[in-house]
TrEMBL record:
PROSITE patterns: ABC_TM1. Its main location: membrane. This is Sugar ABC transporter permease. The lineage of its organism: Bacteria, Pseudomonadati, Pseudomonadota, Alphaproteobacteria, Hyphomicrobiales. Residues 59-272 form the ABC transmembrane type-1 domain. It comes from the Bacteria. CDD domains: TM_PBP2. It is a multi-pass membrane protein. It comes from Devosia epidermidihirudinis. Keywords: Cell membrane, Membrane, Transmembrane, Transmembrane helix, Transport. GO terms for biological process: transmembrane transport.
Length: 287
């Protein structure tokens, strides 16, 4: 593709991403309210942000949601990839089934799981209708368990794409590795865990970063399932940002929160680039 052909994409990327990010970052140092204003107040917005209980709850919820959903997605995704790597029958069908949740809108995913976890006509009501009247499973109505209901929906949505990335990594492993492991009498599960898994650093890192970015910007799923409730029990940073920019007319504080959301993404992408640079350097030295 010629330079002329790529110019519109370059302009769009610079205009939409770079300039907008810099503009938002600058606004986080201002006292902007309903409309942006360049009356700089230093880091006051950041101090105010970390003294706001709603933001602290949002950050804590993000950690809980992120650790549980990412951890489960990585483990279950790898196990599903191992299952698919057995050259099973109807592999294309199973791959489509596992990837289907990721292709769905997060709003639809949230609405489906809100219905499933609703105590009046979801899973709890169904099981009780079978005669198990003591069965209780309605996490979304309790502020202490609502976040775990979101985790369940997040795992269902993200495990398929993790499986696809891991499967691509497994299929990229040299067949001679498997032959050597069989000759040495190494069990299959040990080969997958101790030999093949460390060789999939690229696939693992890609899946991990994709999951992390999805967690940081989670918004639609929460709005569709709980709208941040009960109370603020499932409040997330993305909801905090939107509410303060629109409903609460506090652009400065909202942009400070948005900048804090951007930091882990920048760190993760920088880490990915560093690891890739080191891998390329080792490869070049080996040559």
């Amino acid at each position: 593709m010629s330079v002329v052909g790529t110019t519109p994409m370059i302009v769009t990327a610079i205009g939409v991403f770079v300039i907008c990010i810099i503009y938002s970052f600058l606004l986080s140092f201002t006292n902007s309210k309903l409309f942006p204003a360049f009356d700089f107040i230093g880091t006051d917005q950041y101090a105010r942000l970390w003294a706001t209980p709603r933001w602290l709850v949002s950050a804590n919820n993000l950690w809980i949601f992120g650790l549980l959903s990412i951890g489960a997605n990585m483990v279950v995704g790898y196990l599903l990839a191992v299952f698919m790597d057995q050259r099973i029958r109807q592999e294309d069908l199973f791959r489509s089934i596992f990837l289907y949740p990721f292709a769905m809108s997060l709003v639809i995913t949230g609405l489906v799981w809100r219905w499933i976890l609703d105590p009046n006509y979801g899973l709890q009501a169904t099981v009780q209708g079978w005669g198990f009247t003591d069965f209780q499973f309605a996490p979304l109505v309790d502020s202490n368990t609502a976040i775990y209901g979101l985790v369940v929906a997040g795992i269902w949505n993200g495990v398929g794409v993790t499986m696809a990335i891991m499967l691509a990594g497994l299929r990229g492993v040299d067949g001679e590795i498997w032959k050597a492991a069989k000759i040495d009498g190494i069990p299959t599960w040990k080969t997958y865990l101790q030999i093949v898994l460390p060789m999939m650093r690229g696939a693992i890192l890609t899946a991990f970063i994709l999951q992390c970015v999805g967690v940081v910007r989670v918004f639609d799923l929460v709005v569709a399932m709980t709208q941040g409730g009960p109370g603020i029990a499932t409040q997330m940073p993305a909801i905090f940002v939107i509410q303060h920019i629109t409903d609460r007319a506090n652009v400065g504080l909202g942009m400070a929160a948005a900048t804090m959301m951007l930091l882990p993404v920048v760190v993760l992408l920088s880490l990915q680039q560093f690891i890739q640079w080191r891998a390329n350097k080792k490869r070049m030295n080996a040559l």
